[in-house]
Amino acid sequence: MDRLKIGISACFFHPDPYRKVAASKTLQFIEQSTAHWVMSLGALPFMVPAPSGDTFRGDVAVADYARALDGIVMHGGADVWPGSYGEEPLRPEWTGDRVRDEYEMALVRAFSAAGKPVFGICRGLQLINVAHGGTLYQDIATQKPGSRTHRDADTYDLNFHDVNVLPGTRLADLLGGSGNHTINSVHHQGIKDLAPGFKIEATSPDDGVIEAIRATGSAWIHAVQWHPEFHRAGLGVVDDTPLLQDFLDAAQAARRTS
Question: Does pTM surpass 0.90?
Fold first, then answer.
């Protein structure tokens, strides 16, 4: 079987003198759970390293990965740099990762230009929104008073709440209907202004925080604020398998037309 080849954007550890391993080096990595989620339906995951930095040599570009792979998953992780959407950080700890932003925005544009599907997870949703002209809450708890707890450092991926999947959306079709579905929540930032060319597919019923978006144009771009790769049987959460299958179906269709 010729398996689908799915890229996963890299997370970054920048040089840190307090880190015990390779403190002077930039490390790029993906989380095991994200790779295993992609593998769960038979696809082959490939981390896409950033073709930039002071050690880069050669002429490989993100467009080469967009041609070689069948789709891309935008990984969760660090905050988005507020400068990416025209703001200054409200606190030093919300500075985010400008280097990663620029690399991942280039990935989104390259895969979309190549007609390949893009799926975003958590930060991936936020990055996709910013890449297309949207903005973010730098911190939901302080900028949206009365909001629920979207990130609990102690419970982490076991912090659950419902999302309201909107009727008439592709997400409602995939999940077997609109209404409330239980997900995990591991984010303190979120969409403030939705990017042009996107529609909302799910919100948090308590505070209206946007939980899923989809592109309305010709590009296949779908993103969720939760972490489907952390969902597993027995937790009482929604089965995200149809979301992955939908993404892989789009990747297969893109392969046939490329």
Answer: yes
